[in-house]
Amino acid sequence: MRVAVCLHGYYGTVSTGDFSTSTIGFQHIKETILSKVDNVDFYVHCWQPECKKEIVKVYNPVCCEFEEQIDFDKICAENKIYQNYFDEHFPRKKTMYKNANASRILSFYYSRCKSLKMSLDKDYDWILTTRFDISARGGKEVNQIRFLIDEDKEYLYTTDWQQKNVGYGDMWFYGSPGIMKKYSDIYTSALNDFKPLSRYEKIVTTGWPDSNYFNVHDFNDQRQFTNEIDKQQKSTNLMKFPKWRVTDSHLYHKWFCMQNGLYEKTRWV
Where are the alpha helices (DSSP H) in 120-216? Predict the structure, then answer.
């Protein structure tokens, strides 16, 4: 069995110089992937060229690319994506959603897709994408890779969590090369869907599929955790999110998968 692991993003926390999270991530990858499969190749895209020597030492990637952080505010402007349109009357920088903006999401998708595309023309049984700091950040519900090597490969595997009404916990995914090739288009799709007045925006704000209406300002409103996708009798009172929630990676993953034949191919594990 041959497996490709595609790593992306930042190797360390830039603001603090903390690289312990990536050390924890490598340990998690050893425990959840390398302990199960002998033939594993790594592919890397990283925004920290200064970390190349360390990353090559740790992962010995088959292919890697290191580049300085692209200014995705400029990419947004070039593609007519306007965060101030979505944030009208919403003080994002003063809220827990301060990092949920189009430029940061596009940076994440760009790096992930760069590393994925390096692996797609090779003969692998599984391709898995995750971040360098996996298991070190986020709750255990989403940050623990569950790599089930004997399952049907023609599905998209990701974490089973209590917020499937919103969308996907996006820290890790795996599937066959064919499945992951479809997934690797998420960056280019987002460049269109994050434009004002897109169909994605309309569905987010007028009736989100497989959801249940809840008070978006009440974090304890249990109606958001009903996981309608798992029910035979689903709620007809769909969630209508405010416009400022459009730039949300969990929501966008759900939309992208629904539009690209991956939603019905998802196995939540």
Answer: 140-143, 177-183, 186-193, 199-206
CA angle 154, 140, 152 (to 5 degrees): 15
How far is CA 155 from its chain centroid?
A: 16
Q: Where are the alpha helices (DSSP H) in 8-138?
A: 20-29, 52-59, 72-78, 83-86, 102-119
Cβ-contact 113, 184 below 8 angstroms: yes
135-157 confidence digits (pLDDT tens): 998 888 999 999 999 999 999 99
pLDDT, one tens digit per residue, over 81-90 is 999 999 999 9
Question: Contact, 148 vs 174, CB < 8 A?
Answer: no
pTM for the structure as a whole: 0.96
Rounded CA-CA distance 16/14 in Å is 6
Token pair for residue 159? 């974490």
H-type alpha helices, the chain: 20-29, 52-59, 72-78, 83-86, 102-119, 140-143, 177-183, 186-193, 199-206, 249-259
Give the three-state DSSP class for 199: helix
Return d(Cα 87, Cα 83) in angstroms, integer.
6
Q: Give the pairing of strands 172-175 and 126-131.
A: antiparallel
Bridge partners of 127, per DSSP, are: 4, 175
Collapsed DSSP state (helix, strand, coil) of residue 75: helix
Helix (H, G, I), strand (E, B) or coil at 159: coil
Q: Counting Cβ atoms within 10 Å, is residue 38 exposed (0-12), middle (13-18) or buried (19+)?
A: exposed
